[in-house]
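User: Hey, my collaborator sent me this sequence without any context and asked if I could get a structure. I don't really work with proteins. Can you help?
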Amino acid sequence: MKQSIPKQIQKQKQEQKYGNTSPLEERQAVEDTECDSGKSATIFTLKQTKRRKRITLYLAGPLFSLAERMFNCVLANELRKRGYEVFVPQEFCADKTSADEIATQCKLYLSEADAVIINLDGADADSGTAFEAGMAQETKTTIGFRTDFRKSGDDSESGGNIVFRLLDSIVLYNGSKVSELVDSINTVLQAKYRA
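Assistant: No problem. I've predicted the 3D structure and written it out in structure-token form, which is a compact way to encode the shape of the chain:
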């Protein structure tokens, strides 16, 4: 007859085997590739299990206009097609109403990502995006991208604020296909994580 192991002992054995893991380390994801459905593109059921295998990316960028949210959705889906798990604030904060709840969720997901993909478009980068980039810069792989061909800020090379030179990489893309932008981002990620 099989004896049941008390939950505390199971937890201790799991910690011995896998370390003290975070509840976000492996997820069950239900993906909806229809971004225009008005619903979250990915719903995560959080559970504590062994370490994830896929590289996780946090997508930092503006999300206040329809155009920004649509771009984020297309970008996230292109990254997912290449096998990455992508955290997008407009998805995991869709049901949050207070600024405190949103900030807490963003900080949690940002802390769990392996790398942060940072949208540097605009005359100046979005303030929340800049904050997330700063939080991630010391501990995460940080890859900025700029598709905005305008030169602004104090860095004539990248067209933005010079402080973003602290990022691991900046991808400048002036084409018209999100898939090509993602190819460039993927090349940087592959060099970092497959080497």
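In plain terms: Residues 1-7, 13-34, 36-50 have pLDDT under 50 and may be disordered. You can pass these tokens on to your collaborator as they are.
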